[in-house]
Amino acid sequence: METKVCAKCGKALPEKADKCPACGETVEEELRCPKCGGANIIPISGMSKAATVAKWGIFSIGKAKAEHRCRDCGHRF
């Protein structure tokens, strides 16, 4: 099992910590793709969503709801 460390101060974090006990930095969980498990995730911009809707219309509703895209497998979620 991986030990989590604070991104700001580098101290070890308790398993279910929401803030670093040393510096108070908020701990964010690493986002992973539900399809392939990859961590190479990017947010989908509003402009990209608008372009998809303009191009595909009603057929793009599923894609327009997605918030993130996996760079490894292309899955949108």
How would you characterize this protein structure?
The protein has 77 residues and is α+β, with helices and mostly antiparallel strands. The protein folds into two domains: 1-30; 31-77, no CATH class. It is 21% helix and 8% strand. It is built from two helices and two strands. A two-stranded antiparallel sheet has the order 1-2. The radius of gyration is 17 Å and the shape is elongated. The chain starts with 40 loop residues before the first strand and ends in a 7-residue tail after the last strand.
Number of helices: 2
Instruction: Sketch the major β-sheet.
Output: 2 strands, antiparallel
Indicate the percent of residues in helices: 10-25%
Strand content: 5-15%
H-E string: EHHE
Q: Give a count of the beta strands, DSSP E runs of length 2 or more.
A: 2
What would you report as the Rg, rounded to the nearest angstrom? 17 Å
List the strand order in the largest sheet: 1-2
Q: How far apart, in Å, are the first and last alpha carbons?
A: 26 Å
Total domain modules: 2
Provide the residue-averaged pLDDT: 86
Low-confidence stretches: none
Tell me, what's the shape? Answer: elongated
SS-based structural class?
Answer: alpha+beta
